[in-house]
Amino acid sequence: MRLPRENIDLPEDRGCLQWVLGIPLALLYVPAVFTCCTALWMRPQPGDGPLRDDIRFLAGCCLVLCLTGLLVTITPLFRRTMGRWWFALPFLLATIAYVRAQTV
Asked: Contact, 62 vs 94, CB < 8 A?
């Protein structure tokens, strides 16, 4: 028989912990937003192959940063402390970056 797990996190301590755990995620997602926006703003001309490669590279960087953020977010400490909305941003950014890389 399993005993009920006792939650050691107090509600008033959770706010500070969310800020502390949000810093590494913000350090990953700010460059991801920058690379995704840069890839979206670049407009290649019909014969400009190197610029298309640069856009694909930026979209790939955004995908790697989002994947890294997701790997950090799925750890038990982050899942327990942070809300589910932290999963939404990397999925949204990765989808936009992937679509941009495929349609450039």
From this structure: yes
Q: For residue range 44-77, what is the model confidence (pLDDT) as tens digits? A: 888 888 999 999 999 999 999 999 999 988 888 8
d(CA 12, CA 15): 6
For 8, other C-beta atoms within 10 Å of its C-beta total 6
CA distance 32 to 82: 19
By mean pLDDT, which of 4-13, 16-25, 31-40 is the weakest?
A: 4-13
Distance of CA 10 to the CA centre of its chain: 28
d(CA 44, CA 90): 26
Residue type, 17: L
Length of the chain: 104
The DSSP secondary structure of 20-60, one letter per residue, reads HHHHHHHHHHHHHHHHHHHHHH----TT-HHHHHHHHHHHH
Say whether 74 sits in a helix, a strand or coil: coil
Locate 32 and state its tokens: 């991801």
